[in-house]
Every structure is written in structure tokens, then in C-alpha cells.
Design a protein that fits this description.
The chain is mainly α. It has 15 helices and no strands. Helix 2 (35-49) packs across helix 15 (247-260), helix 8 runs antiparallel to helix 9 (154-164) and helix 11 packs across helix 12. 51% of the residues are buried.
């Protein structure tokens, strides 16, 4: 789960000021956790709060998302989501934005099976992003994370995505010159997954995601969530990233990792596609 937060933090300063290269300072003083991190933590808190059979996961997702969203009101939420955060009777609003995919990583850690990870992804997406594309993006990301957590290689992950969700018939180098800001699932989740597939390590995955431009923090958050599951997070990057989080945020992270496990640096190679 921390991989998503790291991708968000590193990408935060590039969302409106894209860098079309992989060479940049990984952390900087103007980096920060944005809505991607806050909502990832909210979903994590929902799993910590819900019944043992997860029967109230949707309700807890709403409660926790509203709670943390209101606690951190200036994290960069979209207009309709801001209205949802403030609503006394929050209802899904047909979004197919990539918000459903950037917050989904806790679902893969909490799941015992791939089918359960996909079910959790749909539940947590549908409280806001109940458009089929919003749900598809969340399930694609959660499925990739779950497979990576369970030692699937990159070829297996790519096959799963292409058979069920998106055709990955491009490379980062091919799309980089023309790729533009796109907050839809269908316009950013495949790119995030491809950034992972082309990577040689955790840091390289996030650098690749940011290098194409567009919605940099969210693309990097999705890529980072898969890369953490596959490679683990180097200790120095983890240590640096935690400095950007406050006590409430690190508290949720720590409790979630204690319950569902923390993925340490696996020192895995790229594995090919």
C-alpha cells in the first residue's frame, strides 16, 4: 500500500508541470501526499474498521473516505468528489475517473484470493465510481497487485490484464511524446500498468510512470502500488517517504501493515514480459 503513497508523493509536483524524462530528483521539498494518498489510507482504514466478514466494507469505505477527506480538505480532490465528501447522503455519481484505481491497493492486501481482491475493488470503487470503466480500472489495478503479491511474473500479469481489461499494445517510449493529461481510468490505468511492466525496480517503475506526463501523481500511485507488491520498497525510499506523512497517516499505515503484512525489498529483477 505504501507504494501507492510513494508514487503519489514523488509525482505530486509534476501533475501540472510534467517532466517527460526519467531523470529528476526523486524526492523534493515541494513533494506532498495528495488525494491519492489520503483516499488510499481511507480504504485501508475501512478494512481495519469493517466486520470480519467484510459485509459492511462499502459503508466503512464511505465513512472513512469522508472522515479523512474532511480532515485533509486541500489534497487536490476533483469537483464532484468534493461535493460527495460534503454530502450528508453520499451516493455514487457515475465517475470513470482514475480515483477508483489509485486508492485500491489495500484491497489486494486484504484479500485471500484473486476473486476476493476483485470483489473488494468493485465495492470500494462503486461508492463513488460506479461507471463500468471506473470499476474496470479499479479491478485491473487490484488484480495486478494481487498477482504480484502472490509471485506471478510479469508475463502472467500482462496476460491477465490483456485477457480481462486492457490491451497493452504500446510502450512508454512510443506514447511519451504525445501523451497528455487524462484522468479517466481507460486513459491512465493501462499506462500505469505498462510503466510497471517495463520497469527494472521499484524506483525505476515510478520514474517511468512520471516520465510520460499526464496525471503524474495518480499514474505513479497506481504503478507504485503494483511495483511495491512485485519488488518491495527499498529501505531508504521507505524511510524518506514516511517523513512526508503525519502521525494520523502513519498510524493508519502501521496498523494496516501490522494486520496485512509489509512487503520488504524483494530485490527482484524485471522478469520480462
Amino acid at each position: 500500500m505504501l507504494g501507492a503513497i510513494i508514487g503519489d508523493i514523488v509525482g505530486s509536483r509534476f501533475e501540472r508541470h510534467n517532466v517527460k524524462a526519467k531523470q529528476f530528483d526523486f524526492f523534493a521539498s515541494n513533494c506532498m501526499p495528495t488525494d491519492d494518498s489520503i483516499m488510499t489510507l481511507a480504504i485501508a482504514k475501512a478494512f481495519l474498521s469493517c466486520n470480519r466478514d467484510d459485509s459492511d466494507l462499502a459503508d466503512q469505505a464511505i465513512v472513512c473516505m469522508q472522515e479523512l477527506g474532511r480532515r485533509y480538505p486541500y489534497a487536490g480532490y476533483g469537483g464532484r468528489f468534493i461535493q460527495w465528501l460534503g454530502s450528508a447522503h453520499p451516493a455514487p455519481y457515475g465517475s470513470f475517473g482514475n480515483g477508483s484505481a489509485m486508492r485500491v491497493s489495500p484491497c489486494a492486501y486484504a484479500a485471500a484470493t484473486l476473486d476476493e481482491a476483485l470483489r473488494f475493488a468493485e465495492i470500494t470503487a462503486a461508492v463513488t465510481h460506479n461507471h463500468p470503466e471506473g470499476i474496470r480500472g479499479a479491478k485491473a489495478a487490484a488484480g495486478a497487485i494481487f498477482l504480484a503479491l502472490n509471485d506471478a511474473d510479469k508475463g502472467e500479469i500482462k496476460k491477465f490484464i490483456e485477457e480481462n481489461y486492457y490491451l497493452l499494445d504500446f510502450t512508454l517510449d512510443k506514447i511519451r511524446p504525445a501523451y497528455r493529461f487524462d484522468v479517466s481510468c481507460q486513459g491512465s490505468v493501462p499506462q500505469a500498468i505498462e510503466a510497471f511492466l517495463e520497469s527494472t525496480g521499484f524506483e525505476d517503475a515510478i520514474r517511468g510512470a512520471i516520465s510520460i506526463g499526464g496525471d503524474s501523481d495518480t499514474i505513479a500511485a497506481i504503478t507504485g502500488s503494483i511495483a511495491e507488491a512485485y519488488y518491495g520498497i527499498p529501505v531508504d525510499i521507505r524511510t524518506q517517504a514516511l517523513l512526508y506523512l503525519d502521525e494520523i497517516q502513519t498510524g493508519i499505515l502501521s496498523r494496516f501493515e501490522e494486520k496485512y503484512g509489509m512487503i520488504r525489498d524483494r530485490s527482484r529483477k524485471s522478469g520480462g514480459c
